[in-house]
Automatic annotation (TrEMBL):
Domain spans labelled Glucose-6-phosphate dehydrogenase C-terminal: 191-484
Ranges where the Glucose-6-phosphate dehydrogenase NAD-binding domain occurs: 10-188
Source species of the chain: Elaeis guineensis var. tenera (Oil palm)
Residues of the full protein shown: 104 to 591 of 597
Keywords, alphabetical: Carbohydrate metabolism, Glucose metabolism, NADP, Oxidoreductase
Protein name, per record: Glucose-6-phosphate 1-dehydrogenase
GO molecular function annotation: glucose-6-phosphate dehydrogenase activity; NADP binding
A GO BP entry: pentose-phosphate shunt, oxidative branch
Length: 488
């Protein structure tokens, strides 16, 4: 609105996330004319910096998708002109009150809305929320706070964090980011399911044999070992990114696209799942590997990681949803660092065609079932493996893909997840943010397992850097008569 203004404060402005993701995403939104007419961005952190130094820092790290476009530098100058820096302690009410004064100067009497992005470690969330909500209470519009995982380490610490935040904020003011929800293909999941007649009727135990959610990265924890060692891959990827994709994949049809309706369905499906047991999981950790004369380091070679760390950098798990739609269908998850490739995808393996007429024409029944692949990244795509006749006078079949490759179909660039999420937070759209009961249900699934792994000091299976991960993952799938789709 013309007489309103949005002040965005990036708390922890000199950190990695702010530099690599938040400022570039804000700039991309500005470039696309998606930010409100009156907005100001404040960087807040402990280090001393002038506005000019912040602007230099931001312009240097502007590696977003916009930087090759026409008049980018002109827009960039305008954008930087709207960025300011305020240095202060994270637990100082006084420093936040000074920031508030600065913000007010820029608001120039307009209706004031405040957005705080907490790009800081969770152990200081509470201090900042306390100080920021106090000073922002003078704002006459909305105040919202974006927080990003880790939301605790287990059910108890997460509940404590939620209780703490709610001393100063109501649930509607808290925007918990899971950046995977901002990815184009993850957002498309419900479009695919609920706007195409050909998928939704097949979306159940009757036709689907298993579902696989796979995350792999071809690099280790380089530089992040200190953080990672306190969390491990299950907390870093599975309990949030993969579980969120699973919930969207498996939920019942929401009564509308309203945020609460969608989140109600996600919570229901999460609550229908059984907490994981030790026998449902395989964990791994990468070891060093020499290839082409170069030695890739082991996880424990990282100086910030204890030499005897048992933290998993890989995990595979099988989950079941105890409801009428999914009873008995294994949902397999696999997440790993330092593997042979970088890819995130959902693979849906369908059941066999009963009494397959073409069994003797080149289809191996076990392998030739239909498979739908939703490739979240890189090279976004949706493809369906079908059996097809090889052209010619004979009758031989092979497996081919019906392929929707985004780069070939759409000329528009895919926005970064943070762009969508920041825009939604500014617009008050909560659909892609995690509600506290969702978070609670997600932790309930993983907490007993994590405790057991840690209490019993279960050793991870070592796998070479750059490999396909521990062989235990194959056995886990084989126990359920499944082959990982990405390996076959
Ligand atoms: C983060 C994890 O949430 O997601 C990282 O903490 C991981 O360990 C990252 O590398 C992956 O995100 P993306 O968008 O690069 O796939």
């Amino acid at each position: 609105r013309e007489n309103s203004t949005v002040s965005i404060t990036v708390v922890g402005a000199s950190g990695d996330l702010a530099k690599k993701k938040i400022f570039p995403a804000l700039f991309a939104l500005y470039y696309e004319d998606c930010l409100p007419e009156h907005f100001t961005i404040f960087g807040y952190a402990r280090s001393k910096m002038t506005d000019t130094e912040l602007r230099n820092m931001v312009s240097k790290t502007l590696t977003c998708r916009i930087d090759k476009r026409e008049n980018c530098s002109e827009k960039m100058e305008q954008f930087l002109g709207r960025c300011f820096y305020h240095s202060g302690q994270y637990d100082s009410e006084e420093n936040f009150a000074e920031l508030d004064k600065e913000i007010k100067k820029h608001e120039a009497g307009r209706l004031s809305n405040r957005l705080f992005y907490l790009s800081i470690p969770p152990n200081i969330f509470m201090d900042v929320v306390k100080c920021a909500s106090k000073s922002a209470s003078s704002a006459n519009g909305w105040t919202r706070v974006i927080v990003e995982k880790p939301f605790g380490q287990d059910s108890e610490s997460s509940a404590a964090l939620t209780r703490g935040l709610k001393q100063f904020l109501v649930e509607d003011q808290i925007f918990r980011i899971d950046h995977y929800l901002g990815k184009e293909l993850v957002e498309n999941l419900s479009v695919l399911r609920f706007s195409n007649l050909v998928f939704e009727p097949l979306w159940s135990r009757q036709y689907i044999r298993n579902v696989q959610l796979i995350f792999s990265e071809d690099f280790g924890t380089e530089g992040r070992g200190g953080y990672f060692d306190n969390y491990g891959i299950i907390r870093d990827i599975m309990q949030n990114h993969l579980l969120q994709m699973l919930a969207l994949f498996a939920m019942e049809t929401p009564i509308s696209l309203d945020a609460e309706d969608i989140r109600n369905e996600k919570v229901k499906v999460l609550r229908s799942m059984k907490p994981l047991q030790l026998e449902d999981v395989v964990i791994g950790q990468y070891k060093s590997h020499t290839k082409g004369g170069f030695t890739y380091p082991a996880y424990t070679d990282d100086k910030t990681v204890p030499r005897d760390s048992l933290t998993p950098t890989f995990a595979a798990a099988v989950l079941f949803i105890d409801n009428a739609r999914w009873d008995g269908v294994p949902f397999l998850m696999k997440a790993g660092k330092a593997l042979h490739t970088r890819r995130t995808e959902i693979r849906v393996q369908f059941r066999h065609v009963p009494g397959n007429l073409y069994r003797s024409f080149g289809t191996d029944l076990d392998r030739a079932t239909n498979e739908l692949v939703i490739r979240v990244q890189p090279d976004e795509a949706i493809y369906l493996k079908i059996n097809n006749k090889i052209p010619g006078l004979g009758m031989r079949l092979d497996r081919s893909n019906l392929n929707l490759l985004y780069a070939a179909r759409y000329s528009k660039e895919i926005p970064d997840a943070y762009e969508r999420l920041l825009l939604d937070a500014i617009e008050g759209e909560r659909r892609l943010f995690i509600r506290s009961d969702e978070l609670e249900a997600a932790w309930a699934l993983f907490t007993p397992l994590l405790k057991e792994l840690e209490e019993k000091r279960i050793a991870p299976e070592l796998y070479p850097y750059g490999s396909r991960g521990p062989v235990g993952a194959h056995y886990l799938a084989a126990k359920h008569k499944i082959r990982w789709g990405d390996l076959s």
